[in-house]
């Protein structure tokens, strides 16, 4: 069970995981050693799945990013769907993929170095698969907001 200190810690490390226990203790009313113990527990129990670095937008602004809506064939079998999802999971250019409700079945974010890479990726992941009925890409013109954060205290 997560208490209010755990939730506050989760909020802080989502914003900046490079903070030391001493730095976190300035905003969370616990000793640095108590914070370090809690963080070890949160990592070992899977509450903190992994820590990543978000690189500057200025380093990625020339890349091609597309939100790809994927419609599955009406009679696609479970094995075909699972194989498609595994290919999407394994492709490093696919930054996220969600099963969604509504008009489309899947929504994925593709991040590619060029239009050629995007086309090759679509050909190998989507075009050759009879599980995919159709796909539609909307290209990102400009990043307005990117802040992967879930408020755990609210």
Question: Would you mind describing this structure in some detail?
Answer:
- The protein has a 4-stranded antiparallel sheet with strand order 2-3-1-4, with helices on one face.
- The chain contains 6 helices and 4 strands.
- Strand 2 and strand 3 form a beta hairpin.
- It folds into 2 domains: 41 residues, Arc Repressor Mutant, subunit A (Orthogonal Bundle); 81 residues, Lrp/AsnC effector binding domain/regulation of amino acid metabolism (RAM) domain (Alpha-Beta Plaits, 2-Layer Sandwich).
Describe the protein's topology:
Blueprint lengths: L3 H12 L5 H5 L6 H13 L12 H4 L3 E9 L5 H13 L3 E6 L6 E7 L2 H13 L4 E8 L15
Antiparallel strand pairs: 1-3, 1-4, 2-3
Give the neighbour order of strands across the main sheet: 2-3-1-4
* Average pLDDT, all residues: 95
Number of helices: 6
Mass-distribution shape: elongated
Count of discrete domains:
2
Cα-atom radius of gyration: 20 Å
**Residues in β-strands, percent:** 15-25%
Class of secondary structure makeup: alpha+beta
What portion of residues is helical? Answer: 25-40%
Largest sheet: 4 strands, antiparallel
Name the CATH superfamily classification of the largest domain: Lrp/AsnC effector binding domain/regulation of amino acid metabolism (RAM) domain
Give the name of the CATH architecture of the largest domain: 2-Layer Sandwich
Detail the poorly predicted runs: none
Task: Please summarize what this structure is.
Helices cover 39% and strands 19% of the residues.
